[in-house]
Specification:
mainly alpha, olfactory receptor activity, globular, 3-stranded mixed β-sheet, 322 residues, GPCR_Rhodpsn_7TM, 3% strand, 3 strands, G-protein coupled receptor, transmembrane helix, receptor, Rhopdopsin 7-helix transmembrane proteins
Length: 322
């Protein structure tokens, strides 16, 4: 079946290479990355749900960040791995629109949850006496509900604007998923103006979130530098610096990808940026937060020891020798 026949009812994802052997290798690398990222996020979701010592607002927000990261990986990577191994690269129109919805919804939700997390750290460090009142369980629940709702609205608006676009030609997407900048390149009319306006509006909101995060961390670092104890400063920095790194990495790569001028021919920069803001953040987040957080590391060790203990008892009961 020719590329033209395939794309009559959908799109052709070209990925990163035309060489089939390289496509197989890239698909396997993406699969390994997906499994590692999914496992890391699943562990964080599990321990922040089950461990009674990890029920503070900080870990409550971290759990939802991990749910977002696990969902984000599942939106793009499995489809690419499947199409690469099947040597088709085909994605239906409906699947493509679903990717647009979930990707944009989850991306905005992640940006807002990161903003909420920075505010949580600001209150905890700069207003510790008021922390339990400001970050009460009810307010945290409402904040998370608002975050998820805003993401759903964003995804709906983006998808509606994409649905108004007419596509023409072979409808070949030089990317491993239905990325909006690549979809705009194959539109055959000026209908994409609505998408551009939506992107500009979301950029303003992203900038507002960034300013809120920057304000929170300016206040945090100002307060931390006045702490006389070096151990106290180290503990705060170990909590805040990973979060600041995640925000900066996620926002900078996303802005570069969506606001830079699009070119007719795909570039290596386009492919690298797409990996940086779709695959790496949700894969690295569990590592960044876990390695610098003693409470999380302790909870993981306790979980592993508990699983080992249960497994040993089960084995002993099976062989009747304990």
């Amino acid at each position: 079946m020719t590329a033209r026949n395939i794309t009559m009812s959908g799109f052709l994802l070209m990925g990163f290479s035309d060489n089939h052997d390289l496509q197989i290798l890239q698909a396997l690398l993406f699969l390994v990355t997906y499994l590692l990222g999914s496992a890391g996020n699943f562990i964080i979701i599990t321990i922040t749900t089950l461990d009674p010592q990890l029920q503070s607002p900080m870990y409550y927000f971290l759990k939802h960040l991990s749910i977002l990261d696990l969902s984000s990986l599942s939106v793009t990577v499995p489809q690419y791995v499947d199409s690469s191994l099947a040597r088709s690269g085909y994605i239906s129109y409906g699947q493509c629109m679903m990717q647009v919805f979930f990707f944009t919804a989850l991306a905005w939700t992640e940006m807002t949850i990161l903003t909420v997390m920075s505010y949580d750290r600001y209150v905890a460090i700069c207003l510790p006496l008021h922390y339990e009142v400001i970050m009460s369980p009810r307010k945290c629940t409402w904040a998370v509900a608002a975050v998820w709702l805003s993401g759903s609205i964003t995804g709906t608006l983006y998808t509606a604007s994409i649905l108004s676009i007419r596509f023409c030609g072979d409808k070949i997407i030089h990317q491993f998923f239905c990325d909006i900048p690549q979809l705009l390149k194959i539109s055959c009319s000026n209908d994409y103006i609505g998408v551009v306006k939506m992107t500009a509006f979301m950029s303003v909101l992203d900038f507002a979130c960034f300013m809120g995060i920057a304000f929170s961390y300016c206040q945090i670092f100002s307060t931390v530098l006045r702490i006389p104890s070096a151990e106290g400063r180290s503990k705060v920095f170990s909590t805040c610096l990973p979060h600041l790194f995640v925000v900066s990495f996620f926002l900078s790569t996303g802005i570069c990808a969506y606001l830079k001028p699009t070119s007719d021919a795909p570039t290596a920069l386009d492919h690298i940026l797409s990996i940086f803001y779709t695959v790496l953040p949700p894969t690295l987040n569990p590592v960044i937060y876990g390695l610098r957080n003693e409470s999380l590391k302790g909870a993981v060790k306790k979980l592993l020891l508990s699983a080992e203990f249960v497994g040993k008892n089960y084995f002993c009961s099976f062989v009747h020798d304990c």
